[in-house]
Amino acid sequence: MNRSDNDTWDLARSVGATATMVAAARAAASRRPDPIINDKFAEPLVRAAGVELFARLASGELEYADVGSAWMPDYFGARTRFFDAFFPAATIAGIRQVVIVGSGLDSRAYRLDWPPGTVVYEIDQPEVIAFKNATLGRLGADPKTEVRPVGIDLRQDWPAALRAAGFDPAAPAAWLAEGLMIGYLPGDAQDRMLEQITAFSAPGSRLAADYLRSDSASVGAMILRTAEDWRLRGYDVDFGALTYARGPKDVESSLQARGWQTVSYRLTDLLTAAGVADGGMDTSPDGHGAMDYVTAIRRGSE
């Protein structure tokens, strides 16, 4: 079923299943000797989501190489590590508001260290927020700082919901949009989101994101082989139907036009920083430079 502007999902189907997929890869990356990330919450969250294939991959019962996805733990591990490092730099600069946009099964509020007074806002579909909070509650997990969930669809008026949760647009914030601007929002909604983030970003605010380059094929088209291997294992998901056909605009230039000073990275930069060889990335969505990774700082009035 193709995406529509009012569709919904949970963590076992449609776009929500991609959050479970990524969490399973984080769990696998965390199990490796000398791991580049440590996400102890990923595996129990995946198990609770109820997708058997992902649960087996997360636990190590099934290896990613067995399902044509050997690239996943390194890829998502390096991406996670890159964005993890974004937050200490932001808090060292004095930022105490953090917004994770499309938070899915993100557990950074529970596994990263935060300075006193930091508030982490997590924005996602209400069902996704409720599931994660309930699961972490059953695990007895305590966040390392204050977390304020904002359950709303990003295609709706999420800025109003964020402000109602206590966000202060007059104070600088650190924004993360991880795995979101790769086709999961229609082009107009993505542009609107960047405009809304900018409007809520005081000078000195920071942003980190990854995005699909405008000259790249869709994510679904790039991992058809992975989808077929998973289908043979009993999990049938049409990745091509999970993204919008409307082409994305260049995120970095859009940010620059809105007054952000940007630094861009490629996958090879992330892998090198993590000490991961890039030879196994040919079948990944970013195996041939399809995506960019960007950090940005909001400039003051000039």
UniProtKB/TrEMBL annotation:
One of its GO terms (molecular function) is methyltransferase activity. Gene3D superfamilies: Vaccinia Virus protein VP39. Its EC number is 2.1.1.-. SUPFAM superfamilies: S-adenosyl-L-methionine-dependent methyltransferases. It is an enzyme of class 2 (transferase). GO terms for biological process: methylation. Keywords: Methyltransferase, S-adenosyl-L-methionine, Transferase. NCBIfam families: mthyl_TIGR00027. Exhibits S-adenosyl-L-methionine-dependent methyltransferase activity. Belongs to the UPF0677 family. This is S-adenosyl-L-methionine-dependent methyltransferase.
